[in-house]
Amino acid sequence: MTISQQVAVTRHTAAERETRCSPSRNILIRLLLAILLAVQGWNAAAQQNPGTEFYSNPVIPGDVPDPTIIRVGDKYYAAGTTSDFAPHYPVYESTDLINWNQIGSIFNDRPEWTSDSFWAPEFYYRDGTFYVYYTAKRKGDRISCIGVATTRNIHEGFTDHGIIVEWGNEAIDAYIFQDDDGKTYIFWKAYGLDPSRPIEILGAELSADLLSISGEHFTLTDHSKGWKGSGDEGQVILKRNGMYYMLYSIGGCCDNRCDYRVMVSRSENLKDGWEQLPDPILQGGGDWVCSGHGSLVTTPDVRYFYLYHAYNRTDFEYTGRQGLLDELVWNEATGWPYFKHGNTPSASAPVPIPGTRQVRKMVYADDFRNDKNRKLWQWDINKARPGITMKGGKFRLSSEEKGRVFTGISPKSGNYTFEVSIQRKDQLEKGICVYGNRRNMLYLTLRENTLTLVSVKNGNEEIVASREIKAKYPVTLKLQATNGRYYQFFYTEKGSGQTSLEWQGTSTFDGNFLPQWGVAMRTGLIFNNPGNQTAEFSAVRMETKFNDK
């Protein structure tokens, strides 16, 4: 008897017995039916996709909002928002769209005209040159403008060319599009901070060198036509079969009240006549919420993939907006695009490049014999830039500024452990930290024989727990994060087992105050600098648990 026949018989007998069976028997029968139906579905899927490999979202885990993506030859490159963490805009490289390695950053040093809020980089490539159009606040008035930078070697960082778009109180979210006639345009979000008029997505032609605007601006949004949503941003422009399409995001983007989603509009003319598809083509659902602000890339076989961000429903702003991937296809009858696997983010989908397999990097461990992982470590640009060296088995952290000095990395999930080894006793207070910004952090330090757990909320410092230990060095300090929000702290002395740090009957500490608007935390190393001092750490290890399905 086939599975289909078994299911049919089961349905028939279950219907006959429904009125006679006990509640527990009914439950068993329904459970059996559900299992058989599931097996039937799995069997059908296997028959339709024999040998198909699947990937899981996110493809770039951790905090990577507003991602951009391009393909150059057989390589793909991506980057995302870093806000007030530096180096600015980590750059990722891939050959298959599902396994990404960080190869550096767009800027190791802050461009001269900028102050803070480094958002929404957008890559473009032409004739051997990489361009990036990025948003930052300008020194002095802190108005968001769009800058442009270039490089011939993306592994070596970019050279800045200054501001290309300044527009009233705000210009953000650049996108570059070349039309069939060879003309190239820049598009951006405008009027986001102007209460007297609605937000618009504007465009203008670029100069031949792509470093300045040469044409008059025009608008691609028209809410007078009854368009749904507000806050249009994060646009992508493409042309297919003579029709222009614009994917863009609406709604709130950046905290746990968000309702971000992706809309699409189209027109036969780039500069006017745009009509909106009323319903979003991508929104939150399943394990992911507030999907949006992405960029499209085509594979060599001309398939479209959208790299975008979304919050994990459980880890949310504690881990940040992570990098997800889904395929965009077209309804040839209507001409409208849609996402192949539904209008919510895929938990998993077939790999974009046949013959490839996704590999999750669960463990980051570094003994600091060299500085190959230096590019992963970030710091707060609102503090003095720390000195960081990795050499000879030591991580040395210093600063010209007195007080707390921090550097850290972006956790890839809300469930992880982070630990560091401290080899020798000294007078410096140093340890591990979960860092929201300079006014919000939770850290555990060791100074000689004293362990201290400190909470800093809105700049107010509180000692949460303190303990004297024998301090048989080396001492390992460790934290364990659950859902990105809850933390347990441990220490291990030489020759002894792991001990949990408790306070007033609890060993779990709530970090609900740590995330800042639109910015997830970093986890790393900290010390209190009395002035002209250097803290030494020996080895770190971060182990991540992914919830792939």
- The helical percent reads under 10%
Beta-strand fraction estimate: over 45%
Here the CATH topology of the largest domain equals Tachylectin-2, Chain A
Number of helices: 3
Q: Describe the largest sheet.
A: 7 strands, antiparallel
Radius of gyration: 26 Å
Give me the count of strands. Answer: 40
Q: Spans of 5+ residues with little confidence (pLDDT < 50)?
A: 1-50
Domain count: 3
What does this structure look like?
- With 549 residues, this protein is mainly beta.
- The protein has three domains: 3-48, no CATH class; 54-350, Glycosyl hydrolase domain, family 43 (Tachylectin-2, Chain A), CATH 2.115.10.20; 363-544, Jelly Rolls (Sandwich), CATH 2.60.120.
- The chain is globular.
Features:
549 residues, mainly beta, Tachylectin-2, Chain A, 3 domains, 3 helices, disordered N terminus
SSE blueprint:
Layout lengths: L2 H15 L5 H26 L5 E3 L11 E5 L2 E5 L5 E2 L1 E7 L6 E7 L6 E13 L2 E10 L5 E8 L7 E7 L5 E8 L5 E7 L9 E6 L12 E2 L13 E8 L2 E8 L10 E7 L7 E2 L11 E11 L5 E9 L3 H4 L1 E10 L6 E3 L8 E3 L12 E4 L12 E2 L6 E5 L2 E5 L4 E7 L6 E7 L6 E9 L2 E8 L2 E8 L2 E9 L6 E8 L3 E7 L5 E3 L8 E2 L11 E8 L4 E4 L2 E5 L5
Antiparallel strand pairs: 1-23, 2-3, 3-5, 4-25, 5-6, 7-8, 8-9, 9-10, 11-12, 12-13, 13-14, 15-16, 16-17, 17-18, 19-20, 20-21, 21-22, 24-40, 26-27, 27-39, 28-38, 29-34, 29-40, 30-31, 30-38, 31-32, 32-33, 34-35, 35-36, 35-37
Helix pairs in contact: 1-2
